[in-house]
Amino acid sequence: MILEKKDLVSIVVCSYNQGKYIKECLDSVKAQTYPNIQLIVADDASPDNSVQVFENWLSENNYPAITNFHQKNTGLATVLNECIELIEGKYVKIIAADDFLHPDSIQECVEKLESLGEDYGMVFSDTYAIDDNSNILPDIADYDKLGSVPPETFKKDLLIGNRIAALTVLMKKEALIKTGKYKSDLLIEDYYRWLKINALYSTAYVPRKLAYYRLHDSNISSARKERIDEECLYLQMIFDKNGDIKGIINYKIGKLYESNKLSDFLLTQFKEYPYKRRKLKLAVQYKIPAPLYKFLSKII
Questions:
Q1: Within the chain, how many helices (H) and strands (E) appear?
Q2: Which end of the chain is more exposed for a tag (fewer CB within 10 A), N or C?
Q3: Dihedrals φ, ψ of 137, to 5°?
Q4: Per-residue exposure over 98-119, b if at least 16 CB sit within 10 Å of its own CB, e if not
């Protein structure tokens, strides 16, 4: 009996100061029920022992892998762009070294994509949330509700906000290459990637927890949260080609304008946005003072 050879899947594991979790992540790659995997491991000059842990695990397990270890920190985008050049598989999984996969993750995601047509560029699944010791935590989102919708509905919903856990995604290499390199100037590069793929392809969903997402105690700074919110609104303006979320965009821009918090970063993109409300468009165009705009908004 001749067994059909499975398409190659490339898994990229990236670490920065995540040495204590690497073994669990790599063990989960080795435990995959899917038989044809290319492993690429990368580290961006971690000051911890990440590289040593990678090297020890690969040696002890006699597991083949391509390594991309930096001597100088360059940022995740640079590391990922280098790893993309090393990918040989038809499908691609990118995962941080502090997360890990269910044994059926690759098998089920490949099966899902191969059961669908060429219109689909990626698939994602539900995920467990875990603490520092890998104990299961309450769910971080209802991914079944977010993902189990018709493809065209999902396309519009994704514009409203990111509803994809990055560690669960399996992309077609073709979709990854078509949507370009990772950008170093965005914090929410994952969301940018999903929106670019969303513009060209449909997205599939597997309603099963096929990954383990580690939640850390560190709180996000207010400045970082503000930047993430800005980038989200910026991307929404770029990808809202049909005015599907013009109400949301104009409301958010209006509130920022009223409070004198509309940055040049957002202002520049808003001027290009084709679905501006006339009142807000005039305020921006003629630089109407925020207090006056706020007053006029109440009476007009």
A1: 13, 9
A2: N
A3: -110, 170
A4: bbbbbebbbbbbbebbeeeeee
Is the CATH code 3.90.550.10 the one for domain 9-214?
Answer: yes
Crossing angle between the packed helical segments 189-200 and 151-160, to the nearest 10 degrees: 150
pLDDT, tens only, 147-193: 999 999 999 999 999 999 999 999 999 999 999 999 999 999 999 99
- For the chain, list residues with pLDDT below 50: 1-2
Residue extents of the structural domains in the chain: 9-214, 222-299
The dihedral through the CA atoms of 81, 83, 86, 89 has a sign that is: negative
**Contact predicate 127/168, CB 8 Å:** yes
Q: Which two tokens stand for residue 67?
A: 């390594």
pTM: 0.92
Instruction: Specify whether the CB–CB gap between 170 and 91 falls below 8 A.
Output: yes
> Closest Cα to residue 120, out of 163, 181, 83, 169?
169
Q: Which string of DSSP letters, residue by residue, matches 231-289?
A: HHHHHHHHH-TT-TTHHHHHHHHHHHHHTT---HHHHHHHHH-TT--HHHHHHHHTT--
Measured distance CA(158)–CA(187) in Å, rounded: 17
